[in-house]
Design brief:
Elements (H helix, E strand, L loop, with lengths): L11 H15 L5 H8 L6 H16 L1 H11 L9 H15 L4 H6 L10 H13 L12 H11 L1 H12 L4 E5 L5 H7 L9 E4 L16 E3 L2 H8 L7 E4 L6 H8 L3 E6 L2 H14 L4 E4 L11 E7 L14 H4 L2 H19 L2 E11 L8 H10 L3 E3 L19 E3 L13 E8 L1
Parallel strand pairs: 4-5, 4-7, 5-6, 7-8
Antiparallel strand pairs: 1-2, 1-3, 8-11, 9-11, 10-11
Helix pairs in contact: 1-2, 1-3, 3-5, 4-5, 5-7, 8-9, 11-12
S-adenosylmethionine (SAM) binds next to helix 12 and strand 5.
């Protein structure tokens, strides 16, 4: 007897979820990670959810190149938001970048255009495959990002972004005890670019690596480990005003500080508590909005790792290349300005505040600090000296630190960050 309903195409659910993810990022401006839960609802197997994420992330990494192929193979340019375009992006990225056999790549997406231009999708995909289509070794950047970053940082920086986007970033670990750097570099078969840092080439499951269960380290990009280093060690109270998921708060605690780890997100603070328990370091966790909360008295050390557009972590989160524009940058810069103005007021005379963002936008870094300095005669930059930084990264002449794509490229690069250490006179 003929089945009443056709059997579901194996792998279709993951492709449908990938389509929803692309839609969430490109049309609704949602972060990929935020959209993941809703897009993969009803998918039981973790490997199918991971596949959906991998397809969408790779499609975002390769979007301008995929679109150039599609546009070169269609007589009439498909609208930017046409479902057929997104379905073709998903099929092509699997066949050309993820190693999916072309027949599987197309047969698992065609049901997604049921009742739509199935023949067109099939025809465009087939003609591209027959024509030997390939993707360039280094992905092209979307024009609006290329122009923005080229205006701020120059063409050499932009040229360094594409290779950085092509390869998955290495896994960086921060050690609880920097004195054990040689031991863990050896046990993890990694390389170390700074005391307390190990870079691991093999990107396998983190929980399986030596030292995870023992709480010897946590995952943290090398650039992200620099701001807490700039506060040095101490045994006083240190405020970490935007603490979750906790990498920098743990660094401060490991350096002896009594850390008040504040964040407004109770859910994200659960991760902080889990991480602190695994590592075995004490943190005083406070759920509060830094724009409303205030400490009891002046403090000597503050870390403000402010919420930002996160364009500096494009290697891990390529959705920032499509979600972030001038409006988002201006909104974040305004929020950061308010947080910074409030936080410097809490500093004791001689106290230090490290301000950091994982953004490649000067509005969220250099410009914000210059505006603060112009408004506050009692605040100055406490310049970072070269010996506080890993070899290959130098402080800016103004005393702050800017990491850019292209730095340490031969060793695997690092995230884009801005950090400045301020002192209250
Ligand atoms: C860049 S992340 C912090 C990363 C963290 N410092 C680390 O090293 O793991 C920014 C954090 O700021 C928090 N946040 C955003 N607005 C806030 C506010 N008004 N008050 C407190 N935390 C806030 C977010 O919940 C987010 O966890």
């Amino acid at each position: 007897m003929k089945p009443r309903y056709p059997a579901p195409t194996p792998g279709l659910a993951a492709r449908r979820a990938a389509l929803k993810l692309l839609d969430a990022v490109l049309r609704r401006g949602q972060p990929l990670e935020t959209a993941l839960h809703a897009a993969t609802q009803g998918i039981d197997k973790p490997e199918d959810r991971a596949l959906a994420h991998a397809i969408a992330a790779e499609a975002l990494r390769r979007l301008p190149d995929l679109d150039a192929l599609i546009d070169g193979a269609t007589a009439k340019i498909l609208p930017e938001d046409a479902k057929a375009r997104s379905v073709l992006r998903i099929a092509l990225v699997q066949a050309l970048a993820l190693g999916t056999p072309p027949h599987a790549a197309i047969s698992t997406v065609l049901p997604l255009v049921d009742g739509g231009p199935k023949r067109l999708v099939h025809g465009v995909f087939g003609s591209l495959m027959r024509g030997g289509a390939t993707l360039p070794e280094h992905p092209a950047l979307p024009p609006h990002v290329r122009d923005r970053w080229s205006a701020h940082w120059g063409d050499a920086m932009v040229a360094a972004v594409s290779p950085a986007l092509a390869a998955p970033p290495p896994l960086d670990l921060t050690l609880k005890d920097p004195a054990e750097t040689a031991r863990w570099t050896d046990e993890l078969a990694g390389t170390s670019l700074a005391p307390g840092h190990v870079r691991v080439a093999d990107n396998g499951p983190v929980k399986g690596l030596p030292g995870f269960d023992a709480g010897a380290w946590w995952v943290q990009d090398l650039a992200a480990s620099l701001p807490a280093r700039l506060l040095g060690s101490g045994d006083d109270v240190a405020l970490d005003l935007c603490a979750a998921p906790g990498g920098k708060a743990l660094q401060l605690a490991a350096s002896g500080w009594r850390v008040k780890a504040l964040d407004r997100s109770a859910r994200r603070l659960e991760r902080v508590a889990e991480n602190a328990a695994r590592i075995g370091l004490p943190l005083d966790i406070v759920t509060a909005d830094a724009l409303e909360w205030a400490p009891d008295g002046p403090v000597r050390a503050i870390l403000l790792d402010a919420p930002c557009t996160a364009t500096g972590i494009f290697r891990r989160h390529p959705d920032v290349l499509y979600r972030i524009g001038e409006k988002e940058i201006a909104e974040m810069a305004a929020l950061q300005g308010r947080m910074l103005a409030r936080a410097v007021d809490w500093l004791a005379p001689g106290g230090r505040l490290v301000y950091a963002t994982c953004s490649l936008e000067p509005e969220e870094g250099e410009n914000g600090i210059e505006a603060l300095l112009a408004a506050r005669a009692d605040i100055a930059i406490d310049p970072v000296s070269p010996d506080e930084l890993p070899a290959g990264i130098s402080p800016h002449a103004r005393g702050w630190v800017r990491t850019l794509p292209g730095m340490l490229a031969e060793q695997g690069g690092l995230d884009g960050f801005f950090m400045a250490r301020l002192i209250r006179r």
